[in-house]
Design goal:
Number of strands: 0
Radius of gyration: 25 Å
Structural class: mainly alpha
Helix content: 55-70%
Largest sheet: none
Distance between the termini: 13 Å
Shape: elongated
């Protein structure tokens, strides 16, 4: 490496390649800490959205079969499911946009 980067700029010293942590024993091990990781949080959130969807489906079915007469309760269940799903989709869109932005970075 000659210490140069694009547009004619020159670094005072060349960039060394990343060699990883000098003390791997200091890296926290997954599963040992009490804080949930991203995968667990995402999985739990998707599961909660799915439960809300199932509750809304059941409420609609109960209304259609006459087991439920309270329309407000059914509409509340449907709105909760809709809001949870739309929020999850917005999170997905933001996550995908961040991934694409990181993927487009050229070194």
């Amino acid at each position: 490496m000659d210490g140069k980067i694009g547009d004619g700029h020159v670094l005072s010293r060349p960039i060394k390649p990343f060699e990883g942590p000098s003390r791997p024993d200091l890296i926290p091990k997954t599963g040992d800490d009490k804080n949930p990781n991203f995968r667990e949080i995402l999985s739990d959130t998707i599961q909660q959205v799915n439960i809300r969807q199932q509750d809304a489906d059941k409420a609609i079915e109960d209304l259609a079969t006459g087991k439920e007469e309270n329309l407000a309760r059914v509409m509340t269940a449907v709105e909760k499911a809709d809001l949870a799903f739309r929020t999850l989709m917005q999170f997905r869109n933001k996550l995908l946009a961040a991934y694409q932005e990181i993927n487009n970075i050229r070194f």
